[in-house]
Amino acid sequence: MNSQDNYPPEMSKSYRWVMATISGLLMTTSFISLTSFGILSPQIATTFHINNNTLTVLGVDSFSIGLFVAFFLGHGGLFDTRLKTGVLVSQIFLILPQFIIPVSYNLYFLVALRFFQGLVIMLLALFSLQLSGWFRPEERAKSLAFTLGAITLGSAAGGIMPRLLSSVSWQEAYYITGIVMVAGAVIYFIFVKDASTLREDLKKEKKQKHPSAWKNPMTWIMGGIQLPLTWTLFSVGGFLPSYSEHLGYSSTMTSDVIIVWGFTGFVAAFVGAIIGDRLTRGKVTGREIFNSRLKIMTLADFMMGFGALTMILFGGISYEWLILAAMINAFLMMFPPNYWALPGSIFPIYMVGAGAFGMGLISNSADAVGPLVSSILTSNWDLVFGIMVTLSFIGVVGNLILMKVKLKSF
User: Is-contact 259 161, C-beta < 8 A?
Assistant: First the structure.
């Protein structure tokens, strides 16, 4: 699909923006679960008669491990030609626990349910493939900004909703947010359409025997370059409320930090997508497109580390400094739209789905390890954020090297 003259008809239809918007809406309603648990954890801990920090660690870690395991579900090509089925599975794993958690008074059962909710992250690979059938390579980051920016937008909603629902119990808040998730899923399935050209191409290629995505070096390279981002994104998303409380800020101020971080990330996703799409304009080869997007991904890694460093050095000085640090760090969201716009350009058509799940499986191993390590180190917050800074530096240097070296895949 790299030829500028042979784009499928779907890529000229205005409906493609409807697809991007409803995909973003579904991601927003889905990722309310990322931060709402952290905000509501004091009330939940009281119900379970355990320490709030213990509950937060268990809830965040189990969710994060689910984020990693999710990519096992599709890396073998299970959903390549069944995209809507994959989305349905992810929503079942997300929504059913949302209604069961309020009546599950067993801590181990709650931890298991949080794990299943983390499986929703498989939407990243599914939407990367689904939207690649609707958008040209130079538009794909903008289309994915709706969905990927929604990760932090949903996190912001997760910070707003508990405040709006402060007059009700945490159980009722869970039910209400669950209804919001159901509404998002219903709207998605009413309006979603798979691009017919992509669907037919995938079915045709599926019948033929092709080499495994694991034999393509780009699967490993792409998996590796997102490791710093996934470590930091879900560690900050899960533990920023705890860090804010550690610094002595009130629950209202803590919610505001999450809201600002979330909305800034949503805006940053579009900023990164617009710049990335502009940089790829006129580029034809996979190598040219890869290098163009790698530039904005490198800038995102820098902003991510700079924001984490600012949290360490100045977050405790004043609340305004913590807000500023959160905003800087949120510009890490320039990375994901450009990253997930690449599978359709760097993999052959038969490998796009498996390649996307493969690189997601590798990169999201940090989802499981990062928050787990952070939870162990929360007695030393400088070390928690220091690791993020170090990984960001490694990401910047690694990306700069990749721009120069020869890659066999191109």
Answer: no
